[in-house]
Design brief:
Helix Hairpins; HSP40/DNAj peptide-binding domain; rod-shaped; four-stranded mixed sheet; three-stranded mixed sheet
Length: about 300
């Protein structure tokens, strides 16, 4: 007779374990014995399958109830009850009908137990479940480092997953800390089960001249004193290229202007952008000649009090 697998023992638990206990034990053991962390280790593969099997049964209240009563052959509980009732009827009034597995005669003889009964009725360990169960692979978690300029454009990246190179497309506008799910790029499943997913977190570094707030960008631009006084045009760099701006005469230090649609692209909304806010920082000239200083004195003398 094949060895009985105690699912509670597989998870290191007792029968009074709570649902949370089962969940925690499963997660801990699944990580420890996952095939990807134990390559070429048949024992780890076998243990991993048993862990998944135990969790599949014990995490479901109805299945756990059947397992507690019928053991590993819980899936055949209804057939067992029907056969048991039929066997009890054959004992008749003069027979002796018992109510537990241990004394249930007729299947396996004196001292036979439920495992022997199922071996005779279904053929060895409950029919070996007719086929091995399929289990979904575990999920992966990874980080991708990017600059603000990287996140500004839709781009393709090549990731190495389980030794294989995978090309993915990253839409423009991803935010720092944003996580996306790539379905089917996790660990392979067991026994032909589906692969898990990859959860990719973006770390967008913002150490350049721009400050990003949502889809808007903020930047400080130096403005020559003479341009601020007399007005004119300046050209500033943006993430989308050069931008020519008109400067009004007598522009004050700290003046803020808005360039519509020159901010950051909105994630997965093609053609939509935030705004760019520019703050002027007026530069005071240095290294003045005596002649320049004299001109400034004359200008200062014409100012009204």
């Amino acid at each position: 007779m094949a060895e009985f697998i105690d699912y509670y023992k597989v998870l290191g638990l007792t029968k009074d374990a709570t649902t949370d206990d089962i969940k925690k034990a499963y997660r801990k053991l699944a990580r420890k014995h996952h095939p990807d962390l134990n390559p070429n280790n048949p024992e780890a593969q076998r243990t991993f399958q048993q862990i998944n099997e135990a969790n599949e049964v014990l995490s479901d209240p109805e299945n756990r109830k059947k397992y507690d009563q019928y053991g590993e052959n819980w899936k055949h509980a209804e057939q067992f009850e029907q056969a048991r009732q039929q066997q009890g009827g054959r004992h008749g009034a003069g027979g002796s009908q018992t109510g537990g597995f241990e004394g249930f005669g007729g299947f396996g003889g004196e001292g036979g137990d439920y495992s022997e009964f199922f071996e005779q009725m279904f053929g060895g360990r409950g029919g070996q479940r007719e086929s091995q169960a399929r289990y979904r692979g575990g999920d992966y978690n990874a980080e991708l480092q990017m600059t603000l300029e990287d996140a500004y454009l839709t781009r393709q990246e090549v990731l190495t997953i389980d030794g294989k190179k995978v090309r993915i497309t990253i839409p423009a506008g991803v935010e720092d800390g944003q996580t996306i799910k790539l379905k089917g790029y996790g660990a392979p499943g067991a026994n032909g089960g589906p692969a898990g997913d990859l959860y990719l977190k973006f770390v967008v570094h913002n150490n350049g001249p721009y400050k990003r707030v949502g889809n808007d960008l903020y930047k400080t631009v130096d403005l020559p004193l003479y341009t601020a006084l007399l007005g004119g045009e300046i050209v500033v760099d943006t993430l989308s290229g050069k931008l020519k701006l008109k400067v009004a005469p007598e522009t004050q230090n700290g003046t803020k202007i808005r360039a519509r649609g020159k901010g950051f692209p909105v994630y997965k909304q093609e053609g939509k952008f935030g705004d760019l806010y520019i703050t002027y920082n007026i530069l005071i000239p240095t290294g003045l000649t005596d002649e320049q200083k004299e001109l400034i004195k004359q200008l200062a003398g014409t100012q009204k009090p």
